[in-house]
Amino acid sequence: MKPNFSLRLRIFNLNCWGIPYLSKHRADRMRRLGDFLNQESFDLALLEEVWSEQDFQYLRQKLSPTYPAAHHFRSGIIGSGLCVFSKHPIQELTQHVYTLNGYPYMIHHGDWFSGKAVGLLVLHLSGMVLNAYVTHLHAEYNRRKDIYLAHRVAQAWELAQFIHHTSKKADVVLLCGDLNMHPEDLGCCLLKEWTGLRDAYLETRDFKGSEEGNTMVPKNCYVNQQELKPFPFGVRIDYMLYKAVSGFYISCKSLETTTGNDPYSGTPLSDHEALMATLFVRHSPPQQSPNSTHRPAERSPLMSVLKEAWTELGLGMAQARWWAAFATYVIGLGLLLLALLCVLAAGGGAREAAILLWTPSVGLVLWAGAFYLFHVQEVNGLYRAHAELQHVLGRAREAQDLGPEPQPALLLGQQEGDRTKEQ
């Protein structure tokens, strides 16, 4: 690599709020989004909540002169909603669907049906390998009583592990998407601490946009004002995160968000604000590499967040086991009721009543059975993430020999060292 290597990347990210039949002015907003992307000519446009195949095909056709490479990540029943448009050829594509994604019986929330996922595209730019990820995690809905917290923490850990295991040959890693988490939330901290990704909003020296970088703001006419009542300036739940490895250095020269209005026409492109960043990648001598050292002070936050995530997943498993046990009791009572109805029907004394109660009793048993199976699957999904975290903590204890208070950041240092050797 030439010592004077330098590359500028312009990145766009937006949760498009493209729910067919429900999202207001969807067709008009998609049209204006296409016009805006063509005019600005970003290197990469990463979008969430493009739920309609028709919308994706429309954007693909409209953007093809400027962004010849495009892909729609499909999963679940209604799709992940993730898609990408690139000015540069896409060398590789893959995606990973999260193991846990809410509850199928919470139909009014709908996350389970979407098959939330993370999409990966690999670009080769002037000899540099860029791994770009786009994702959308489970929504929060109720911050005071968040029944999806364990699922979102598990998704954050799964996302962090996916990035770690798929980016070993990458020179630059970029993650964009709607994480549905505030910057201080457990899942967000877990993701950033484990992967080493840096927040563009915190890193840039030139920021223009909503106060505190918020991506859902009261000024946006599509936002539910009641939900933002506790947050007068809005919330920041959409992110651009990045890092460079293997002798490269990346910086965010500028970051801009929309502020409740379309940059040109005055009406919003979505209920979320768009993120627009200009990143610079350059060659970095080994002694200046930001990943070359791991001071003890940098390890403590990682240890703390790993232990907190491990605890939260344990609580989630206990809750899921309780629901599975409850379903078992309902199944037992339902079977007992069916047996009683069979006896009554055979005796002939209350045959008509038994026949009337037969169908709802069978329905109760079937519903409880499906409920049981789902929550057993939830227990296993949470257990997997919980066991992985427990393994990391155990390895840290062995590596540091610190008994009950280990520092697992040493493992992160070992991982970076292994990555360097592989390259």
Automatic annotation (TrEMBL):
Where would you say this protein principally sits, based on its record?
A: membrane
Keyword terms = Hydrolase, Lipid metabolism, Magnesium, Membrane, Metal-binding, Sphingolipid metabolism, Transmembrane, Transmembrane helix
Q: Which GO terms describe its cellular component?
A: plasma membrane
Q: How does it sit in the membrane?
A: Multi-pass membrane protein
Any Pfam family hit? Exo_endo_phos
Q: Which Gene3D superfamilies match?
A: Endonuclease/exonuclease/phosphatase
Quote the catalytic activity from the record. 1-O-octadecyl-sn-glycero-3-phosphocholine + H2O = 1-O-octadecyl-sn-glycerol + phosphocholine + H(+); 1-hexadecanoyl-sn-glycero-3-phosphocholine + H2O = 1-hexadecanoyl-sn-glycerol + phosphocholine + H(+); 1-O-hexadecyl-sn-glycero-3-phosphocholine + H2O = 1-O-hexadecyl-sn-glycerol + phosphocholine + H(+); a sphingosylphosphocholine + H2O = a sphingoid base + phosphocholine + H(+)
Superkingdom per UniProt: Eukaryota
The transmembrane residues are: 322-347, 353-374
- Protein family (similarity comment): Belongs to the neutral sphingomyelinase family.
Name listed for the protein in its UniProt record:
Sphingomyelin phosphodiesterase 2
Q: Which organism is it from?
A: Cercocebus atys (Sooty mangabey)
